[in-house]
Amino acid sequence: MSGIAQVMDPIGRAAVEAARVLALAPEPAKNRALESAARALRARRDDILAANAADMREAEAGGSTGAMLDRLGLDAARVEAMAAGVEQIVQLPDPVGTVLAEWTRPNGLRIQRVRVPLGVIGIVYESRPNVTCDAGALCLKSGNAAILRGGSESHRSSRAIHDCLVDGLREAGLPEACIQLVPTKDRAAVGYMLAGMTDWIDVVVPRGGRSLIERVQREARIPVIGHLEGNCHVYVDGAADLNMARAIVKNAKLRRTGICGAAETLLVDAACAATHLAPIVRELLDAGCEVRGDAHVQAADPRVRPATEDDWYTEYLDAVIAAKVVRGVDEAIEHIGRYGSAHTESIVTEDTAAAEKFLSRVDSAIVLHNASTQFADGGEFGMGAEIGISTDRFHARGPVGVEQLTSYKYVVRGSGQVRP
């Protein structure tokens, strides 16, 4: 048995046993574990921040980009947000055991479709230590055991956060193996999770950059819930309010540039380009955002750099945006369909007909009207938190919260029926 197998196989076996217990755990026990974990996050805030500071120093010394450091970094507000997110998950209805549909057949058989956990979920992620908290808490609430493999750059932070989750499990009398953190930084552990733990892991959820997602989708021998990238668009329609458009575009791009819901392409209707384009572009440039545009956008401000064909496909995750003038909502929809990643798109307009056309015809997981793409977040959707935003078209799409981490089974009750 290889060294990685010696580490990972006991984790898998323990997760399966824990999942059997957790699938039958009453809601009050799961909520007690989450409430205790939230208290521990607050009580150990300084320990978490100290661990994160060590991770940050190591990442900076290793030459990590500003965007990666933003995803990795924690402060008091982010720790509080994690604790508050766990408390929001407590308030969500327990999905396990929910009857989705029921009917009676002519022969008297009574049939119910009932929500059940997926089982054991492997989560592979980079940089963001808050995923340790979000993923662990969501899996717990939805009755799934979790095996978490965080990025090596965040291993100290993730371990400190995981300790809080384990405290909650212990206080509630639930198996500590309900939420396990892979203890090794060896990248071979990821490959082993994807191809060597098919007897134990039921589904894997990757969260990170394109290279990680592609690796998971290429190597996994178990089902995957994930997305390749967030090439998100904001389309400013000819009937857009200028002040609203300026505020939405700036927020969508610059609130946090390193998240998958950050806008990467700006599309402006030719019908309002004379009045709207220059002010929006100028505001982005003045805020320190690089703009790469077509000829119309370059003419609006001399600081704009020429856009290449590759720019329309690019998820920058940085203070860079591609910008283009299009001829109306139809051309905007066509551009998004060609270059987008089916993640999140927004239209800014006071024209209801244009908005409804955009919302119905753009085939992305999330479409918005007069709102920033940065609302692409499970917490903002009232889900408490999310493991990620799925661009898949089956099982789960959009924010993956507690309901999306369940499947269903059919429960059939009879009175002696036999099939003729």
Spatial ordering of strands, largest sheet: 10-9-11-8-7-12-13
Spans of at least 5 consecutive residues with low confidence: none
The largest pleated sheet is described as: 7 strands, parallel
Q: State the end-to-end distance.
A: 52 Å
Whole-number average pLDDT? 94
With helices defined by DSSP (H or I, 4 residues minimum), what is the helix count? 14
**What global shape is seen?**
globular
- H/E element string? HHHHHEEEHEHEHEHEHEHEHEEHEHEEEE
Strand content: 15-25%
The number of E-state strands comes to: 16
Secondary-structure content class: alpha/beta
Radius of gyration: 23 Å
Considering DSSP H and I runs of 4 or more, what fraction of the residues is helical?
A: 40-55%
Structure overview:
This protein is 43% helix and 19% strand. It has 420 residues and is of the alpha/beta class. The strands form four sheets. Strands 10-9-11-8-7-12-13 form a seven-stranded parallel β-sheet, sandwiched between helices. A four-stranded parallel β-sheet has the order 5-4-3-6, sandwiched between helices. The chain is globular. The termini are far apart. The mean pLDDT is 94.
